[in-house]
């Protein structure tokens, strides 16, 4: 069982799948990301299709995923959409914008339970992005929109 | 229309945003006296906290028209006002968003929404966004419960389930108001919630 668990953590196999392949995550995944000791850089963006600045920011992540193909850089887009809108809003958006990065759905009804886990100073306004590279103890959190150049600057800082 | 949208896209795309950290510095913390304001309401009149009669406290809620989270909480905010205004804690709703960046949140549309949804409270526009900055509002909805001296006694979320009012287990805000009215300490004075970031003006 333990082995299974560690393998699933290793592979970042997410929780139950929704009908259209949007894995669900919860506060335990945030804890796992925060506790990562791996040499993979996680770029974890909190967004939603209803959030205009988030939608404006998404192309920067799409561009990042195309230009930085290093498998040690993993972009995870954590959707905070309404659950009832997964099939009607989220899935079509992912398709229409050709998002190849991992899109997951935050399946926690109470944001007060997990916002502080991401960063104690986060107000909960989205978009927000967390950068983690556990093996070098790198962790940076940004509330608000980031441009492609901002993202590249942060990535270059870590290299 | 397309041209307009493109211009809007350019405007939105090329300006820098006031950083969260800059606004954080200005944020009110629990126990601090919140500043009063004098803002125009959808009734066309100016409103300040000092003008609220017989207030035991004030429930200042930064909210807006366009944000789906604000919309999800709209009925709950109306209910809270109906329940607590008569007990001396009325809702004062303030829209802090730049109506140029988000036309759905301009004054004309505020008037329309307040009328259509029969807002029983004042819905004010924070045109220069100084009130939102002074309070440290970050998102909509974002609530600030003040006592009669305008001291901040609760801030954050309304409850623990934005998606379904019927599935709410903890009513953070109502619990805080009840404890306040009963003269008891508020056990959870600060909570976090997801919300739409405030649309700050660009300079």
Report what the structure shows:
- The complex is a heterodimer of chains A (159) and B (203).
- Chain A is of the alpha/beta class.
- Chain A has a single domain (22-158), classed as Glutaredoxin (3-Layer(aba) Sandwich), CATH 3.40.30.
- In chain A, 37% of the residues lie in helices and 22% in strands.
- Chain A has helices at 2-10, 27-34, 52-67, 86-96, 115-118, 148-158; strands at residues 24-25, 41-47, 73-79, 102-106, 125-126, 128-133, 138-143.
- In chain A, strands 1-4-3-2-6-7 form a 6-stranded mixed β-sheet.
- Chain A is globular, with a radius of gyration of 15 Å.
- Chain A starts with a helix and ends with a helix.
- The relative contact order of chain A is 0.21.
- The model of chain A is unreliable at 1-13 and 15-19 (pLDDT under 50).
- Chain B is α+β, with helices and mostly antiparallel strands and 203 residues long.
- Chain B has one domain (18-197): Glutaredoxin (3-Layer(aba) Sandwich), CATH 3.40.30.
- Chain B has helices at residues 2-14, 20-26, 68-84, 107-116, 130-135, 172-181; strands at residues 39-41, 46-47, 57-62, 91-95, 122-125, 139-140, 142-147, 152-156, 195-197.
- In chain B, the strands form 2 sheets. Chain B has a 7-stranded mixed β-sheet with strand order 2-1-5-4-3-7-8, with helices on one face. Chain B has a two-stranded antiparallel sheet with strand order 6-9.
- Chains A and B meet through helix 3 and strand 5 of A and helix 1, helix 3 and strand 9 of B.
